[in-house]
Amino acid sequence: MVETVLEDRVFAHSMLREIYEQPDAIAATLRHYMLNESLNPEPFKALAEALRGHERIVIAASGSSRHAGLAAEIMLEDLAGLTVDVEYASEYCYRSTHTLQSPGVIVVSQSGETADTLAALREATARGLSTVAITNHAGSTMAREATASLPTYAGTEKAIPATKSFTTQLVVLYLTTLYMARLRGRMTNHAVSSLCEQLVEVGEALRSALPEWERQASGFAERMRGASAVLYLGRGIHYAIAREGALKLKESAYMQAEGYPAGELKHGPNALVGKNAPLVVLATRDGNDPDSMLRYEKTLQLVRDMHTQGAEIFALISEDDVEIPLITANVIRIPRASEYLLSVLEVVPLQLLAYFSAILRGIDVDNPRNLVKAVVQE
């Protein structure tokens, strides 16, 4: 057990401290990549050379980093107009000749030393492909060997479950998306600046929301204590966060959990749903985005159907939602943000839920069994 202090608070575990460090980690990352409330072109020069002219991107990553890649797939396709394929790094070397032809390759890794992701990077390099490494260690092997390196600035992360390294990966991938959208003429400077300002606001909203989320997530964990399995549901970019939430619960609390696209629940997994197998539903929305509102309406109907079925439902909702609280009292409200930035916010209560679930089960949450911080041997 590690006791550390952040803003006069003593934390019993590194994982909780690192959850609380996320606003500062995001701010540090933004200081490197932004200038005068817009993108600083200097850190992206090598990226521009690596990806200029590419219409197709392969993202190779493992674990939490792959979930960040799944979120980036939505961002890059929707905002930058690129075709993106997300591969398990451990599979890339064995089927790389069957993936998108002549793509740019982005590898994502907290340590920059993950064995299968490093192997994927080297396979891409051997095939003459341009590569970009997003890691939390600017001097890592991946950062050195890639054509371009885009470090995150999360600082040292001691707990094995990824928290601040994951949110800063999302931030760097979002900034990469904005840069590529601008480079490809799909976004004006004014639009990029506006979205950069929103990203700063998201970091501050996270700082304000953390104490209340901690209290609510602790209550969620208590009410989930007897669950035999938990299904996490999300649509669009929120599916990636549902998968990350499920992984956090598995690795932190040793509870069976799976993340699914919300629309897939009735195609099989619904057979598992019951009082001992609750649902965690990501049901946030961006009121300025018609597609986001459509996804919300579909998710709202699913929540209604599951309530009628008798399911125990825990929901992440937008702060102004009045519909879902009429169906379930188990809600955590997420501050207003654009569709793609909601992911940075909504993953944090799921990290807290995993943390408190682990504590209730007497688990050393910083050092889960059978796991290491960086998998350096396949």
Automatic annotation (TrEMBL):
- Which Gene3D superfamilies does this one have? Glucose-6-phosphate isomerase like protein, domain 1
In this protein, which residues make up the domain named SIS? 47-186, 220-368
Taken from the record, one Pfam family name reads SIS
List the catalysed reactions: D-fructose 6-phosphate + L-glutamine = D-glucosamine 6-phosphate + L-glutamate
GO biological process entries = fructose 6-phosphate metabolic process; protein N-linked glycosylation; UDP-N-acetylglucosamine metabolic process
Molecular function GO terms recorded: carbohydrate derivative binding; glutamine-fructose-6-phosphate transaminase (isomerizing) activity
PROSITE patterns (alphabetical)? SIS (PS51464)
Indicate the enzyme's highest-level EC class: transferase
- Give the E.C. number(s): 2.6.1.16
- InterPro entries reported in the protein's UniProt record: GlmS/AgaS_SIS (IPR035466), GlmS/FrlB_SIS (IPR035490), SIS_dom (IPR001347), SIS_dom_sf (IPR046348)
Q: Which UniProt keywords apply?
A: Aminotransferase, Repeat, Transferase
Q: Check the record and name the CDD domains matching this protein.
A: SIS_GlmS_GlmD_1, SIS_GlmS_GlmD_2
**Which protein is depicted?**
Glutamine--fructose-6-phosphate aminotransferase [isomerizing]
- Which species is this record about? Acidisarcina polymorpha
